[in-house]
Amino acid sequence: MQRSSELRVALGGFGAIGGALAQRLDRGVPGLRLAAVSAKDIARAERRLAGLGRPVPVVPLGALAEEAEVVVECAPAAVFTQVARPAIEAGRIFMPVSVGQLLEQDELVARAAATGARIIVPTGALLGLDAVRAAAEGTIHSVTMVTRKPPRGLAGAPYLEQHGIRLDGLGAPLRVFAGSARDGARGFPANVNVAAALSLAGIGPDRTRLEIWADPGVSRNTHRIVVEADSARFEMTIENVPSEANPRTGKITALSVIAALRGLTATLKVGS
After folding, report:
1. pTM for this model (two decimals)
2. Which member of 33, 148, 223, 248 is catalytic?
């Protein structure tokens, strides 16, 4: 594929995150250009794309890597590999939003090393990953994350359905999960990709501890992280405004992806 002075970006998914990314790229991000999108509802996607200044084609998930140097995955977790594998096999820059799926398919990292692909995980609806990565260069003793979400933000999670946990009419905070980040990402694939990103930056998915609370008293998705390391002890809390289109996702997630994309071409890049 012939390269231009701009990096072409393809979006695997055109929901709340993909739509926000498309609009921002269409308005202009230096060094980047929207090249293609993929969507389950092609006709609806084409109607939405018609409103952009530079409409782009809607292509199958597996064809995204043929259209761009950078492939962003922002689709349902069930189709993660349909975006990831072609991008990695083609040696592209692959940016996953469904980070929890990397914990289930860690062989993709080894495959990327063989093909020359790069996997860049955006910070997402989290904060402080730079500090966690820095601490990981020394010794981290423990990482704990406590997530609180409005009950509707956890609706439909496989873990809740498997354990018969109902959140309808919940009147007080309820801890619905306590365990490893790996198990949390598996049981709540649309809710705690932040825990997967945190675990990859730090001490891994099996040692990173996670609690998830359904809390009718909060209106924002809240994450509190405590890190104990030989270099520092730090606590971080973020309260994310849920997206109107998808309450499981914070508005800041799409902005985080844009920030990560900017870092690919920026002359000045702040943070590791």
Report:
1. 0.91
2. 223
